[in-house]
Specification:
Mean pLDDT: 95
Structural class: alpha/beta
Number of helices: 9
CATH superfamily: Vaccinia Virus protein VP39
Low-confidence stretches: none
Number of domains: 1
Strand content: 25-35%
Bound molecules: S-adenosylmethionine
């Protein structure tokens, strides 16, 4: 998460701004941004998907709402920054442009949409595609970003960066993948032997015993409302 936050910090300077974190997962980014003085709302698709974030609480300046990227439950002009942190490719391909249009709708004048997406590259992608192959959805998200003008957005900055992701053991990998989508539990369990092999073969040793570290290439885009 460190490289993700550093890149977001560098590209949008969120401190003191009103920020919407679309698909906030366990709320790590919401907490980090609130700690940096942002007024943050984390959005998730269900109470169940929000449970971890809510249980972890957080500093004042952080709140959570249930909703979907395609139909944001906010008025026009509510935020300085709308963030999709590793979330855009989880939106169904047909809804990608509507979701970007929704993000644009809720921006205040001068606001930006920030999208950080894992690319379909690197050894973490090779490992996790054994559970769910995200090749097509990741490519669909990049294609939608290339057509963001259809959503009334212009790409103003694009930066590629690498995240080094360290995972303590196979059980931690399972927990991480299942937290994104509970349906993955049975896929993981059915392919556990193959996953154990790939977990040991891909990436490199981490600092603690059994830990493995993997590379995930990322791309960050900053978009502004077209004039
Ligand atoms: C890979 S996780 C990323 C979570 C978090 N942003 C992070 O970086 O750790 C993707 C998240 O998007 C959420 N999600 C899936 N479809 C969504 C949608 N249509 N609108 C908003 N969030 C969605 C999932 O529930 C999941 O928590």
């Amino acid at each position: 998460m460190t490289a993700d936050i550093a890149m977001l910090e560098r590209l949008v300077r969120p401190g003191g701004k009103r920020v919407l974190d679309i698909g906030c997962g366990g709320g790590a980014l919401v907490r980090e941004l609130a700690d940096r003085g942002a007024d943050v709302v984390g959005l998730e698709i269900s109470q169940a998907q929000l449970a971890t974030a809510v249980a972890r609480g957080g500093p004042s300046g952080a709140r959570y709402v249930v909703g979907r990227a395609q139909e944001l439950p906010f008025d026009d002009g509510s935020f300085d920054v709308a963030v999709f942190m590793r979330t855009l490719h989880h939106v169904p391909p047909a809804d990608l442009i509507p979701a970007l249009r929704e993000a644009r709708r809720v921006l205040l004048p001068g606001g930006v949409v920030y999208v950080a997406e894992p690319l379909a590259e690197g050894d973490y992608f090779a490992l996790t595609r054994l559970v769910e192959d995200e090749l097509e959805v990741r490519e669909a998200a990049q294609a939608a970003l290339a057509e963001a003008t259809l959503a009334g957005l212009d790409r103003v900055t694009t930066v590629k960066y690498d995240v080094r992701l360290c995972v303590a053991d196979l059980a931690s990998l399972r927990a991480r993948l299942v937290s994104v989508d509970p349906e993955r539990a049975k896929l993981f369990d059915a392919r556990e032997a193959r996953l154990a092999e790939a977990f040991a073969a891909l990436g490199e040793d981490g600092e603690s015993s059994g830990e493995r570290c993997f590379l995930q290439p990322m791309r960050a885009d900053v978009l502004r409302a077209s004039s």
